[in-house]
Design a protein that fits this description.
Blueprint (H helix, E strand, L loop, with lengths): L6 H18 L3 H7 L4 H9 L18 H14 L4 H17 L2 H13 L4 E4 L15 E4 L4 E12 L6 E7 L8 E7 L5 E5 L10 E12 L3 E2 L5 H37 L1 E2 L2 E2 L4 H29 L5 H25 L2 H4 L4 H14 L4 H13 L6
Parallel strand pairs: 1-4
Antiparallel strand pairs: 2-3, 3-7, 4-5, 5-8, 6-7, 9-10
Helix pairs in contact: 1-4, 4-5, 4-7, 5-6, 5-7, 7-8, 7-9, 7-11, 8-9, 9-11, 9-12
Bound molecules: flavin-adenine dinucleotide.
Length: about 375
């Protein structure tokens, strides 16, 4: 068994940590206060190659492995959790486009994502369809042979206020997953209107409800086959769930590092608080759980890279890591005492931010359904 990162992966992590500390970390709290997506962040991240990680070099990307994308998410999560949404969105969406698009579509659409000019979002959720995504009802009404008109509402869309383009799932056929097609939609279309959520966390990225009023799309905008949109989009989610896990664990590890330092420096009853087992043991537990969840995330990505089945591992990563990160960050906040409760410290913001990914991209229950199906067998799916 070969265990560990190779030299290139270690070098990538070292370089990225230096860069994220310098370029991303200083904006984490101010971007949250502004509650607005800062366009320069996409440009900065693109220059570092972070928006083109999963895009082939021919289209301006890095052609990076899934493991490298995981390292990127983990390091960005330490410095600015919310900047990590750009990695999640671009990696997930470019994977979907690379797998399902024609050469012409790829050449048209992928370079903009890699260069940071096109901020993409993905629209699945609707007011009446969340977990049960296959029941979505955004209508794609035929308009001649090779065109459709989209009408309806999508909701809870990450980067929905800022995005330039979107992968939109719409119903071109009958009920269920087989009646769903995917389109690459220009968000500047006059038939599109957007409304922002006032969220607990990740305010710099934002979520939005998007209204479609007779938005015309053609076959040239279709991602993959008619009726194949649901399956092709959902396949992308498989591996992105492990990337989400690592983003959350990055934020947890940074909080733990800060709590450990505080436990060395802060004194009570004449001693550093780290000498009290009531302080040290919870931190030891946090370190142990983070190590376990990291292994699950990286195993899922490694399996993806070498072409092995990885949906159970990715689901384990998605159910465990965001919940664990929330618990770890909460524990670290308590270890910092009253300092941790102040908005001047980043730990409280991390707590608000990571909770979102306990829900976004599917809740723990959905992940457990996937895991259960894998360990029990398909016959036991509800
Ligand atoms: C931060 C954030 C970012 C998001 N970004 C996007 C995005 O970019 N694009 C997008 O399309 N959507 C996005 N979403 C929406 C997200 O995917 C949905 O919120 C999620 O799929 C759950 O759907 P719902 O909120 O409608 O909950 P519901 O489906 O209404 O579920 C409510 C509760 O019931 C549970 N539940 C439902 N069915 C079952 C079942 N069969 N067994 C057990 N429990 C069940 C759920 O786990 C949940 O706890 C985002 C959400 C958040 C919070």
């Amino acid at each position: 068994m070969h265990y560990g990162f190779d030299e290139d992966e270690e070098a990538f992590r070292t370089e990225l940590r230096r860069w994220t500390d310098k370029v991303l970390a200083p904006h984490y709290q101010s971007d949250d206060k502004a509650a607005q997506f800062r366009r320069q962040q996409a440009i900065d991240m693109a220059q570092m190659g972070l928006t083109g990680l999963r895009i082939p070099e021919a289209y301006g990307g890095q052609d990076a492995t899934a493991v490298i994308a995981g390292i990127a998410a983990e390091e960005v999560g330490r410095a600015d959790f919310n900047a990590g949404y750009l990695i999640i969105n671009t990696a997930l969406i470019s994977d979907i486009l690379v797998r399902n698009c024609t050469a012409e579509q790829r050449a048209d659409w992928l370079p903009g994502i890699a260069s940071g000019e096109t901020v993409p979002c993905i629209m699945i959720t609707e007011p009446g369809a969340g977990t049960d995504a296959a029941s979505l009802s955004l209508n794609a009404i035929p308009d001649g042979e090779d065109a459709w008109r989209l009408s309806g509402e999508k909701t809870s869309i990450t980067l929905g206020m800022a995005a330039d383009r979107a992968v939109v799932l719409a119903r071109t056929g009958g009920p269920g997953a087989r009646g769903v097609s995917a389109f690459w939609v220009d968000m500047d279309d006059p038939g599109i209107s957007r409304g922002a959520f006032d969220d607990l966390g990740s305010r710099a990225i934002g979520r939005a409800s998007i209204h479609f009023d007779d938005v015309r799309v053609t076959r040239a905008d279709m991602v993959g086959d008619e009726g194949g949109g649901f399956v092709s989009v959902m396949q992308g989610f498989d591996y992105s769930r492990a990337i989400i896990g690592l983003l959350c664990l990055g934020a947890a590890q940074q909080s733990l590092d800060e709590a450990l330092q505080w436990s060395r420096d802060r004194e009570a009853f004449g001693k550093p608080i780290g000498t009290f087992q009531g302080v040290a043991f919870p931190l030891a537990e946090c370190a142990t759980y983070i190590a376990g969840a990291r292994h699950v995330c990286y195993e899922a990505l490694w399996r993806k890279d070498i072409g092995l089945e990885h949906s159970a591992e990715a689901a384990m990563a998605k159910f465990w890591a965001p919940k664990l990160a929330t618990d770890v960050i909460h524990q670290c906040l308590l270890t910092l005492g009253h300092i941790g409760y102040s908005t001047e410290h980043k730990v409280g913001q991390r707590l608000r931010d990571v909770i979102g990914l306990e829900i976004g991209d599917g809740t723990a229950q959905v992940s457990k359904l996937v895991i259960a199906r894998n360990i029990l067998g398909r016959a036991y799916a509800p």
